[in-house]
Every structure is written in structure tokens, then in C-alpha cells.
From TrEMBL:
It comes from Promicromonospora alba. Keywords: Hydrolase. The keyword Hydrolase applies. GO terms for molecular function: hydrolase activity. It comes from the Bacteria. This is Alpha/beta fold hydrolase. The lineage of its organism: Bacteria, Bacillati, Actinomycetota, Actinomycetes, Micrococcales. Residues 42-272 form the AB hydrolase-1 domain. Pfam families: Abhydrolase_1. Transmembrane segments: none annotated.
């Protein structure tokens, strides 16, 4: 059972104030947050490599939570959730399924970013009946070209960030130019708007295991995405160094009922740099 009764609470639509909750399922305690009006189909957010509950841009979460029940969660071994991170994306999808079913949902919408988008694809391929609508951002398909190079780029940018005492996301998610640098600083600042009850950081071992899983995903046989019938919104920046932007175009070709949005002069975190444009697009797509 969930740890909190929410029946008498007023509706919270600010991610900075979303209550932290836990639920036990399959021997794992999953940490999650929820906000927005209850009832109807929830939007479940699938986070990126090394991401925890504190890594979602509140400008995007809040925009969707105005009218939708939003759930963010730490998958197994991530943040405040117990257990060990699996070294396989499909196993991460199985854990996500366990979590969602434990909450009692049989239909959800998914908002995903980066590694979260890979997990989301594996989930929807295995359990197509679970997902009504799909948002895939900064991600690519299983077996996609150069997907396995994520690991090298990640370590290189972490080194660059360490040398300049910056957050690695400033290098990994944004262009290092006159538009990218201030967008990066603004994004990192937004991630710290929540001041109480923050999540546990990702342990280094779990981070390395996630990288291993991404590499395996990149080198494995492609999934048959032609089976996907869900309306799908695909978005990225035009210069994604982590998960090359061409992979978003590849996804768009493979998923029949999909829309592709590419933002100019932006990288892996294009949706965060262009949150003022993207948040309403995502909210409208998920509203239908």
C-alpha cells in the first residue's frame, strides 16, 4: 500500500511541493512523488541516466500537472528506491511495470527523457495495452546507430565538468555557446527550487550499471516499433551529442503515429532549453 492517504489533500500543482511517497512491490520499496488533480489516466515520468526525482525540470512537470495526475519515480536502485540497478534496460522496464501496477493503474501516459525513453520503449513493446500516449525526448531506438557511444561522451563531459567545477549536465545537455551556457545555468538553478525533502543522489555503482545497460541496448537487435499504435510525441535538440539527434528522426520513421519536434541550436536538453515552447506542446499532446 501507498504510505500516504491523499483523499483530503488540496491539489498540488508545483513539483517543488510534491509530497514524497513510497510503495512496496516485488520486494523493492519505490520512492515517488505525485501532483496534479487525481482521477483519469496518470502521466508517469521516466527519468534520464543518473537521474533521480530531483532531476525533472519543474517548468515541464508543472505545466502538465495543471490538468493531469503526474507521477515521477525512482526505479530500482535509483535515488531513494531500494535494490540494485539492473544492467539491462528491459529489466528496468519490468521494474517500472511492477511499480505502475502496484499503484493500481492499468492505463498510463508516459513522459520520458533519454534513458527513460529507452525504458519506456521496452515497456510499451512488452505491455502495449498499458500505454495510451507516449512522449519520447532525447532518446533513440534499441540498436540505434552510435547509441553505444553514449558511454564515451558521458565520461568525457563529466571530466570536462569536473575540471571547471560545473554540473556535468551543463556539458551533456547543452551546447557550449552563447545560447547554451545561460540556458544550462538556468536549468540547473530550476532543479534546486525544491528545498525540502530532496532525493538521495545516484550512487556511482548504479550510474556505471546504467551506462552498461545503455551500451547493451545500443548493441542489441532493434525492437519492432512498427507495432506501436500509440500517439507518440518525439522531441530533441538539433545537436544532441549524447543520443545523436538522427536517432529521434529514426524513431519518427519507425513509429507510424508519431510527431517529431526538433529545436534549433540546442543539444540533449533541447526540451529544457526551450521549455517555454515545449511544455505547452507536451501538455496539449497529453491532454487529448
Amino acid at each position: 500500500m501507498s504510505t500516504n492517504d491523499t483523499s483530503n489533500e488540496s491539489v498540488i500543482t508545483s513539483y517543488a511541493l510534491a509530497p514524497a511517497r513510497t510503495i512496496d512491490a516485488g520486494g523493492i520499496t519505490y520512492a515517488y512523488r505525485e501532483l496534479g488533480p487525481k482521477g483519469g489516466i496518470p502521466v508517469v515520468f521516466f527519468v534520464h541516466l543518473a537521474g533521480t526525482l530531483d532531476n525533472w525540470d519543474p517548468r515541464i512537470v508543472d505545466a502538465i500537472a495543471q490538468n493531469r495526475h503526474v507521477i515521477t519515480f525512482d526505479n530500482r536502485g535509483v535515488g531513494a528506491s531500494t535494490g540494485d540497478v539492473p544492467d539491462d534496460v528491459e529489466a528496468m522496464a519490468d521494474d517500472a511495470y511492477t511499480f505502475i501496477r502496484a499503484l493500481g493503474f492499468d492505463t498510463i501516459d508516459i513522459f520520458s527523457f533519454s534513458l527513460g525513453g529507452m525504458v519506456a520503449q521496452d515497456l510499451v513493446v512488452k505491455h502495449p495495452e498499458l500505454v495510451r500516449k507516449l512522449v519520447l525526448t532525447g532518446t533513440g531506438p534499441r540498436g540505434g546507430k552510435d547509441m553505444d557511444k553514449v558511454v564515451g561522451v558521458t565520461y568525457y563531459d563529466i571530466l570536462r565538468a569536473t575540471l571547471t567545477r560545473s554540473d556535468p549536465k551543463e556539458f551533456l545537455f547543452f551546447n557550449r555557446n552563447a545560447t547554451g551556457k545561460p540556458a544550462a545555468k538556468a536549468f540547473i538553478k530550476r532543479l534546486h527550487e525544491r528545498t525540502v525533502d530532496r532525493d538521495t543522489d545516484m550512487p556511482l555503482k548504479g550510474f556505471r550499471t546504467q551506462l552498461k545497460a545503455i551500451q547493451k541496448y545500443g548493441r542489441s537487435a532493434p525492437s519492432d516499433l512498427s507495432k506501436l499504435t500509440q500517439p507518440t510525441l518525439i522531441a530533441n535538440g538539433d545537436n544532441d551529442r549524447m543520443v545523436p539527434s538522427v536517432l529521434s528522426e529514426d524513431l519518427h520513421r519507425r513509429i507510424k503515429n508519431s510527431t517529431l519536434v526538433i529545436y534549433p541550436d540546442s543539444g540533449h536538453g533541447g526540451i529544457f532549453q526551450f521549455h517555454e515552447k515545449f511544455a505547452p506542446v507536451a501538455a496539449e499532446f497529453l491532454a487529448g
